[in-house]
Amino acid sequence: MIHLLVGRLLYAYQTLIVVEVVLSWLRMTQIPLVEDFYQALATIVEPYLGLFRRFLPPVGGVDFSPILALVVLQLAQRII
């Protein structure tokens, strides 16, 4: 029972990371609602993504740390 709850929480967090990545591209539109939603998500996912940015800095302006972060979450989900 607990493993199902943890698995769903990990899936929800993965979804938040993907949405934050998409919104980071949409921020260029400078729509206030997009910026507000991005900032709210960033407060949730940036501490986790920051761990991976230490080891995998952006290359050519592209940040690959969310991919590594998602892989780690998926591995954790499979272990559980």
Description:
By secondary structure, this protein is mostly helical. The chain has one domain (7-79). 78% of the residues lie in helices and 0% in strands. It has three helices and no strands.
Shape descriptor reads flat
Pattern of helices and strands: HHH
The biggest sheet, with number of strands, parallel, antiparallel or mixed sense and barrel status, is:
none
Strand composition percent: under 5%
Number of strands: 0
Number of domains: 1
What's the pLDDT, averaged over the residues?
A: 92
State the separation between the terminal residues, measured CA to CA. Answer: 11 Å
Contiguous helical run count: 3
Low-confidence stretches: none
Descriptive key words:
mainly alpha
Summarize the helices and strands and which ones pair or pack:
Layout: H1 2-26, H2 32-53, H3 65-79
Précis, in short:
The protein has 80 residues and is an all-alpha fold. 78% of the residues lie in helices and 0% in strands.
